[in-house]
Amino acid sequence: MDVAEKSPKEQAASLVAAQRWLALATVDEQGVPTLSYVPFAPALGAFVVVVSRLAAHTPHLLAQRPASVLIVGDHVDDPYSRSRLSVDVAPRVNPAGSQAAHAIWSVLQARHGETVAVLRTLTDFEAISLEPKRGRLVLGFASAHDLDAAAVKELLR
């Protein structure tokens, strides 16, 4: 199947599967934004991450403030036509030792390797689910597609 023949949802799923990092935008209590780059995995109908309490974005996530993620496709000749998926998310903290936290650590280790096993031994890391609220897939010029929460959650399972 040619890329052009795939549905927007299939193209979004391919983009998520191909990329290992996402840009994470959060806001503090005054609305000041913080942007960072975080390894992720698609799991449990969410973008799952582990973050250090030393990172600037972590207090915003722990306070469960609204956030957004951006996943960008591989380099193309024309940077204006690069595929990208932006998703507004609701952070959910998964307590250490919980079944959800264990699942997040496991899926991240499977995707990103042994560094995750080392991070798991550090007490300052939190397992966070970034649950989709709505998304926007841009595939280049005149090709933008809105995805509702259910569609984004489905591609993250």
Quickly list its features.
157 residues, alpha+beta, Pnp Oxidase, Chain A, eight-stranded antiparallel β-sheet, 27% helix
Write a structural description:
By secondary structure, the chain is an alpha+beta fold. The chain has a single domain (3-155), classed as Electron Transport, Fmn-binding Protein, Chain A (Pnp Oxidase, Chain A, Roll). The protein contains five helices and eight strands; from the N terminus they run H-E-E-E-E-H-E-E-H-H-E-E-H. The chain has helices spanning 8-18, 58-62, 99-112, 115-120, 149-155; strands at residues 21-27, 33-39, 41-43, 46-52, 67-72, 84-94, 125-138, 144-148. Strands 1, 2, 3, 4, 5, 6, 7 and 8 form an eight-stranded antiparallel sheet that branches. A hairpin with a 5-residue loop joins strand 1 (21-27) and strand 2 (33-39).
Outline the secondary-structure elements:
Elements lengths: L7 H11 L2 E7 L5 E7 L1 E3 L2 E7 L5 H5 L4 E6 L11 E11 L4 H14 L2 H6 L4 E14 L5 E5 H7 L2
Antiparallel strand pairs: 1-2, 1-5, 3-4, 4-7, 5-6, 6-7, 7-8
